[in-house]
Amino acid sequence: LAQAAQGKRKGKFPAMAHSMASSSYVMPASITWLTRSPTLPLVAASVPCRLQTRSIAGMRRPAPSNARELFCTVFPLLTLAAMWPTRAKDVRVRASLVGRVARRQLVAACIALFPTVARAGPDVGKNLLYSGMETFTIADSKAKVQESVTLFDKAASSGYPANRLWQRGLSMYYADRFIEGAKQFREDVALNPNDTEESVWAMLCEARTLGFDEARRQMLTIDGERRPYMRAVYDLFRGGDREAESLSVLEKMTAGGGADQFYAALYLGLYAEAKSDTEVARRRIKESVATDYAKNSGDYMAGLARVHMAVRGWNTV
Question: Higher model confidence: residue 77 or residue 39?
Fold first, then answer.
């Protein structure tokens, strides 16, 4: 769970326990992806044996006494089975899927459904990270966003790696602390050079202080992005010969569904805001919040889109 929280969104993670427990959130549909692993039947078949047979020490392992214990026993095995590549060439594809969107959604589901288990242990830094994420996703003002920044800062001072706190960078953007936000994202990209969204968010922060054109010139170079919508987003923000084509691709995606529809609308809105086009920005962000993906996925970025609407005062417009 802790490793998943350190993974990127980043599919830049999902709404946390407080907001999810009191809303209409459901288990992310993407978790069904786990069932498509070719090794899953073997793992599933081994679970009863693990629960009922004797251990190496000769002691009988008791069956889980409740659903939470069963989840904690079985879920890691299913996750590993889904992640395990059957061919060498599958390694990078599986790593990309799990490392970006899937891990982010899984962590949200775990915290929402099993908050006590997720927060157990002595690691104060991780607990503060989770608290900061919860606080951000229910923020309705810059003051509330600043509270999440404070929690993220405390997480870093308590030992959580500061250059993995991409959540802090997002909060900095909505707290209007753009220089610090850009610094956070640039440090994150130094750790993970292939993180497209970190590069885009660094550019968004710098557009507020340097201007759009200068921020674009200084935009971090990223290679290896496999998600079609994020490749188009990167080319759009980067500019150049592919800008018009990328804009057209993203506009078409907004008429589709799933993650592509949500992220296309979200980043079209952020792009418009960076260029000071408030009307288009409001329309696109509102579209992203209205998607089924935003309502049901539990993705942290879906929470961010709602925070964007609240902080900008667009919920009443």
Answer: 77
Alpha-carbon dihedral angle through residues 90, 96, 101, 103, given to the nearest 10 degrees = 80
Q: Yes or no: say if 81 and 46 are a contact pair by the CB < 8 Å rule.
A: no
Mean pLDDT of 50-77: 47
Which residues, in sequence order, are CB contacts of 246 under 8 Å at separation 6+? 232, 233, 235, 236
Q: pLDDT tens digit string along 181-220?
A: 999 999 999 999 989 999 999 999 999 999 999 999 999 9
Count how many residues are written for the chain.
Answer: 317
